[in-house]
Amino acid sequence: MGIIDYLDAKRKEKERQIKWELTKRKYEDQAKIATGVMIGAAAGVLAGILFAPKSGKETREDLKEMAHEAKENIHDNIEVTLDTVKYKTGELQEDLKDKYQDFQERGMTELDKVQDKMEEVKKDLHTLKDDSKDALKQGKESAKNVASKTKEDAKDVGEKAKEGAKEVGKEAKESAKDVKDTAKKEAQEVKKEAKK
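and the corresponding structure tokens:
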């Protein structure tokens, strides 16, 4: 949306506001006039009845005539109100059409941009999901490999420790035997020399 479109939209909005204010004032004025006429007519009728030096028959005819005039005034006011409602409805329809058209001109291009961004986000999320699955698989395999290697290493260490313990045990036995044999020989020599 360019600056010209923006300025045109603002101008249309201002025109609608001015049109609304003028219509509003017109109907307020009409309502005030109609109310004043009704109050004046009622006051006039009441004053005429109370202060009229007429007979009962003439007063009843006057009341009948006033009721008829009041009925016509009410009928006229209803017609004015209906015309006002029709005018307002037409004006409201025109405003809604303008706003809808304005939305189409401005909003639809923005919605397309949002939709494009949403598609990009969906693609990024899909890629992230796939990458996460792959990383999880690799991490799982890596953990299995480390666990397997650790188990094998622990088994090897255990076997080497067992073999080392056996060798140390053998060497200890051999050393003990050597020490025993050496001690026996020494003891025999000491005995021989002691006998001499």
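(Above: one complete record from the training split.) Residues 118 and 124 are 10 Å apart (CA to CA).
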